[in-house]
Inverse folding.
């Protein structure tokens, strides 16, 4: 076994030397990962993802490519680790330069259109997220925030939480999911007919919301109690 061959040559390795080279790379990767400290295995920040995928590709190619040199892979892994540590340092000193900021998508039941566009989400995406957060009724959502980790946080209006119908032994109807009736001034005819509603009903609801024309509505939600909730 030749130590020089293991580190600086690739074509003349025997089985034992290949085993040693693969073992060295594995433990270097293990040490590098521990040093970089990926905090959430399922939610890597963008630079952590690039580092992890890049390092794994480097290690794999050096393990199977007979022409590669072990020392090259070791140097690249060290450089990757140092770059990662430097970016981690910037997270504390200049977080805005390397990290995304949380984006508020809904505030006090109102959709923030510009932030929705900034987060590259559609209305359907928004309601899917709300359902996943057990908050299907937009009007009851105080905040929905797109976090920098890629997850979403929802805060529900809790004014009615201290005393519930269940606590008072009052039987209630099963909640029906809210439906998008109006989007950017256009009425969904299917939703309107499905709920046996008419344009006269819409006009009445608009007046109760002090809205002159349907074209002023960005998002109109038909709530579970058959009322029109407007986010303009």
């Amino acid at each position: 076994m030749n130590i020089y061959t293991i580190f600086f040559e690739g074509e003349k390795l025997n089985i034992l030397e290949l085993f040693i080279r693969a073992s060295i790379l594995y433990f270097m990767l293990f040490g590098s990962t521990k040093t970089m400290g990926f905090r959430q295995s399922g939610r890597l920040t963008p630079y952590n993802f690039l580092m992890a995928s890049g390092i794994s590709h480097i290690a794999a190619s050096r393990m199977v490519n007979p022409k590669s040199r072990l020392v090259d892979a070791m140097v690249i892994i060290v450089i990757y680790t140092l770059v990662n540590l430097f970016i981690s340092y910037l997270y504390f000193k200049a977080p805005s330069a390397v990290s995304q900021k949380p984006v508020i998508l809904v505030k006090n039941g109102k959709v923030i259109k510009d932030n929705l566009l900034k987060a590259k989400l559609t209305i359907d995406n928004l309601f899917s997220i709300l359902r996943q957060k057990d908050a299907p009724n937009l009007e009851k959502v105080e905040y929905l925030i797109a976090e920098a980790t890629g997850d979403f946080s929802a805060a529900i209006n809790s004014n009615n939480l201290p005393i519930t119908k269940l606590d008072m032994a009052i039987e209630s109807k099963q909640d029906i999911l809210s439906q998008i009736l109006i989007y950017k001034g256009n009425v969904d005819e299917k939703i309107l007919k499905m709920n046996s509603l008419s344009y006269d009903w819409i006009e009445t609801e608009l007046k109760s919301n002090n809205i002159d024309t349907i074209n002023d509505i960005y998002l109109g939600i038909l709530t579970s109690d058959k009322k029109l909730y407007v986010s303009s």
In short: Strands lie at 103-107, 110-111, 141-146, 152-156, 179-183, 186-187, 219-222, 228-231. The two ends are 75 Å apart (CA to CA). The chain has nine helices and eight strands.
